[in-house]
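Example 5.3 — Integrase core domain-containing protein
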Amino acid sequence: MTRLDDRDQFLRDFRREVNDCVRVVTTQLDNQQVLGDVLERLSALKRDLLHSRTGDIVSASAYDSLLSSLNRLVELVSRQAEVEESNADVTESFASTRVSSRQRGSPKFNITRAQLEFLIACRFSPKKIAEILHVSSRTVSRRFKEFNLDTEDYSDMSTESLDETVQRLLAGNHRIGANTVVTLLHNEGIKVQRERVRESVRRVDPAGVACRSRRVLKRRAYKVHCPNSLWHLDGNHKLIRFVQ
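Solution (predicted structure tokens):
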């Protein structure tokens, strides 16, 4: 094998290894163990690159270019590994400990009201709060009830203000229902209970409610001779108005 063949083979292997490292990092960016393994592989690549230059397999310009790209990749992976390590430390610091109550049963988790209020203020969902505290979702739910907390921060706007806002959003369009209005309110930063929105739509646009109610399909009752003798294929009926 000639030196040219050695160079081509080395460059192919080098690119394949780098591409595989990039693939692993991009697919498992939040896995600290994987990031550490990738850093070890990149360090091995740097050693191989140095040996290839020592053996005069690659030219000086190619060596400098490959080493520069490799160093940038190492820097990016190292930075991400530091971020994940920091996040892991923060998560561990929130992990709840058990406190013995000197009663029968498993010791109770020490979860304070201040902890839950802080995590709720950070817009974490109950499921995510359970992961941060290293407890089950049921434990978090029980603490919410115990401290009378709610993750939903609904607006306290009056009924009159809500009706005015809903009327403005409807703008005379009788095809807009309560679900769409809820989304439009969220886009304006207004979070209102869905039932309140439904009632407001009924008050503001009774004609539209009646119009949409007439289009509700009635469930059919079929009488057939035997199973599979009749098939009913459902469609997306909300799109019917666009094809009529």
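Remark. The longest helix spans residues 60-94.
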